[in-house]
Amino acid sequence: MAEKFEPRIVGFLCNWCSYAGADLAGSSKLKVPSSLIPIRVMCSSRVDPVIVETAFLRGADGVIVAGCHPGDCHYDEGNYYARRRFAVLKKVVETLGLESDRLRLSWISASEGQRFADVINEFNEKIKKMGPNPIRKKTSL
Ligand code: FES
Model confidence at 123, in pLDDT bands (50, 70, 90)? Predict the structure, then answer.
């Protein structure tokens, strides 16, 4: 009998906006899937592409990078750098043999607890439909 697939999603959340949005979702008792492994970063621009690749190589089924809305980054232009890097990162994910949709970038502010819950739930459902990260099977991590 096949086991029910529960994704593992690594979320890199900017401290000032998205992490606070996650906190608000939690304190508002909104339903967020337990598949999310949140990692707090100071800014979305601090998410090095190597870290994202490592997450996938170690078996993450999905990776989400979330930061402040454009124009609201606490370091002025950090999220613009993240957005530019993200376009390249999508290609890198494909070279790993993964669907680029396993990687997502979202802007979620500190006051958007509901949006945080909605984005994570939607991404979780999408990853469930895609199935497990095929690299995980090959490397048995
Ligand atoms: S501080 Fe939030 S994206 Fe830069």
Answer: very high
Q: Is there an atom of ligand 1 within 6 Å of 66 CB? A: no
- In CATH, what number is assigned to the domain containing residue 59? 3.40.50
- The CA distance from 68 to 56, in Å, is 24
Structural domain includes residue 47: yes
Q: How far is the CA of 72 from the centre of ligand 1 (A)?
A: 7
pLDDT tens profile 63-107: 999 999 999 999 999 999 999 999 899 999 999 999 999 999 999
Cβ atoms of 12 and 51 closer than 8 Å: yes
Nearest ligand 1 atom to the CA of 79 is: 3
Give the nearest ligand 1 atom to 73 CA.
4
pTM: 0.93
Give the domain range for residue 98. Answer: 9-130
